[in-house]
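TASK: fixed-backbone design
INPUT:
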């Protein structure tokens, strides 16, 4: 059979099926395979909100989108070139995300009468037969039947175990389609199922059967290839946001010489931080799964008071429960890192869907005047640097710090170049060991030039002191209810946070000139979409620039000057308009919002349209 090979620059694949079909594993394996080839990529796992929605239903659809390219990749792609649909529900949910003329690979068994009914198709309607897919290239494969045929020589496996391997058939077929080797997935299977030989051998056989099906049938007359991306030399790995965040905490612990203590209560999508850090006991990492969110942060505060790096991780609902204890940490003025992996709200909201709607909570969501620095991660790999910086600020300025990520960043993946120890800025810890010459008695709220108080470990002779949530007298730390003292302490706690702006980098322009018609300013996970859109418009000759904020409180000192250099300011956010309110308040700028609150990311295409209307 004569087949052509075509080289592509960009490909977006969406794997979709029931939450039991293994689409996340399939996507992750293809991602790892792609990363090993040096091809740039970005991923977007799309989990169902239900723990186990009914099989075959629309709420039960699980998806994994992967964008890979020989060019630099900033987003998981606006629209898919290929959709793998394991059942009718997966097709119905994801068809709108497939480009016209795109390829649809369907598992025929997932389109029987039962699956069509569960996917809410009208009686007698089958999208594979009614002409509704005529604008697409549909490849029909009886994946379930072929999988069972491939494992017929394993009588010890039941039908349930046999059918679980059908995602390996799809993966093998896609590997053939994009001219890939099976070796890295075979090694993965050996590690995962090495002690279960029947499951191991059956999965390998199904993987090979999918590859051979592509090789021996005429479903495609063309195979595809994507060349390596031009990336800086170095050692890379594919990394997800929560993994990078965990490694950043470990690196910060090593550079500061502090033990890392994580107090956490499981909550989607932050739980993986607890899981990941628990693997690193050899680095002195201590993880504590508390009985609730309040106990988790209280334990972390106790760890910081005792001289460790206290960390707690949660999502929006957990942040709501932690707020009183966050106020305590502000009052105590001790280091603490509070990680919020944002998700759709309010209440329990959309547990597995992304949102940026906790910014105002991070800014103001505590009782009283309770200022706290806020840092935002922009991409999965950026989580490493962002949390490392959050630790540095927390320790050197003696303050709790909120780090904002979200479900899109936490579960997404991209290539990450390993940093070396010399790449990391120092984190200096100066525990107070003794009284100063002019200090006859320990004064716990005596401040340095950063307005930070000293960090004294309990039990240090001569440094006994009282802590608690009641208002402190300046310098002495004694309980004090005087009106003038409270005014002074409110002001000085705010001034301490404001003064951090003297110790962070000035804001840089990510893309574009220093002056122009439109400035697009963002924070967090909108980074990729904004950067891609602005790069396209800049290439078209438009006077558009992009600024992305890591330091959200306080802002970099030159941000106001940057804003003044543009005729219009656009603020895209996955919320109902939060950063735009703060910018208007602090800089009196007529910034315009672009808001999308649908549980999915903003796309490059929609931003291009919005920006063009402002030009």
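OUTPUT:
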């Amino acid at each position: 059979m004569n087949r052509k090979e075509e080289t592509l620059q960009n490909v977006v694949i969406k794997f979709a099926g029931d939450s039991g079909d293994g689409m996340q594993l399939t996507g992750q394996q293809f991602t790892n395979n792609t990363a090993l080839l040096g091809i740039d990529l970005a991923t977007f796992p799309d989990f169902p909100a239900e723990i186990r929605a009914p099989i075959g239903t629309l709420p039960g659809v699980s998806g994994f989108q992967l964008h890979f390219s020989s060019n630099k990749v900033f987003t998981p792609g606006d629209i898919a070139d290929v959709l793998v649909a394991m059942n009718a529900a997966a097709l119905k949910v994801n068809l709108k995300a497939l480009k016209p003329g795109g390829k649809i690979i369907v598992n025929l068994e997932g389109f029987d009468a039962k699956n069509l009914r569960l996917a809410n198709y009208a009686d007698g309607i089958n999208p594979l037969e009614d002409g509704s897919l005529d604008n697409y290239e549909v490849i029909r494969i009886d994946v379930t039947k072929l999988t069972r045929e491939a494992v017929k020589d394993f009588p010890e496996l039941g039908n349930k175990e046999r059918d679980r391997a059908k995602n390996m058939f799809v993966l093998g077929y896609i590997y053939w389609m994009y001219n890939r080797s099976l070796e890295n997935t075979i090694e993965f299977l050996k590690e995962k199922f090495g002690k279960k030989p029947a499951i191991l051998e059956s999965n390998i056989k199904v993987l090979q059967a999918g590859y051979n099906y592509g090789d021996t049938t005429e479903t495609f007359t063309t195979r595809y290839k994507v060349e390596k991306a031009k990336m800086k030399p170095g050692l890379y790995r594919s990394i997800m946001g929560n993994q990078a965040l965990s490694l950043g905490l470990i690196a910060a612990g090593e550079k500061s010489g502090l033990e890392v203590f994580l107090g956490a209560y499981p909550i989607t999508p932050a739980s993986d931080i607890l899981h990941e850090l628990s693997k690193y006991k050899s680095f002195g990492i201590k993880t504590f799964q508390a009985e609730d969110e309040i106990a988790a942060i209280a334990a972390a505060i106790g760890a910081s008071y005792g001289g460790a790096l206290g960390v707690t991780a949660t999502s929006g609902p957990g942040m709501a429960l932690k707020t009183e204890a966050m106020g305590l940490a502000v009052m105590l003025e001790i280091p603490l890192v509070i990680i919020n992996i944002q998700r759709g709200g309010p209440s329990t909201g959309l547990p597995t869907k992304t949102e940026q709607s906790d910014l105002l909570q991070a800014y103001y969501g505590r009782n009283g005047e309770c200022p706290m620095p806020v840092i935002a991660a922009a991409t999965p790999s950026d989580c490493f640097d962002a949390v490392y910086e959050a630790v540095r600020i927390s320790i050197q300025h003696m303050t709790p710090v909120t780090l904002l990520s979200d479900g899109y960043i936490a579960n997404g993946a991209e290539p990450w170049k390993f940093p070396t120890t010399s790449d990391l800025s120092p984190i200096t810890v100066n525990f107070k060991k003794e009284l100063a010459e002019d200090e006859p008695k320990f004064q716990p709220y005596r401040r340095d030039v950063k307005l930070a108080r000293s960090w004294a470990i309990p039990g240090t002779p001569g440094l006994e002191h009282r802590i608690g949530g009641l208002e402190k007298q300046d310098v002495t730390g004694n309980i004090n209810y005087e009106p003038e003292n409270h005014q002074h302490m409110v002001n000085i706690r705010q001034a301490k946070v404001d003064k951090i702006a003297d110790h962070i980098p000035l804001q840089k322009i990510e893309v574009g000139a220093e002056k122009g018609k439109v400035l697009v300013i963002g924070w967090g996970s909108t980074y990729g979409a904004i950067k891609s859109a602005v790069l396209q418009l800049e290439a078209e000759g438009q006077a558009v620039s992009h600024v992305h904020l890591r330091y959200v409180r306080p802002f970099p000192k030159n941000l106001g000057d940057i804003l003044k250099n543009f005729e219009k300011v656009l603020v895209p956010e996955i919320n109902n308009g939060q950063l735009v309110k703060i910018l208007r308040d602090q800089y009196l700028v007529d910034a315009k919002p672009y808001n999308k609150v649908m549980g999915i990311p903003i796309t490059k295409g929609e931003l291009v349209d919005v920006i063009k209307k402002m030009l």
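COMMENT: The two ends are 53 Å apart (CA to CA).
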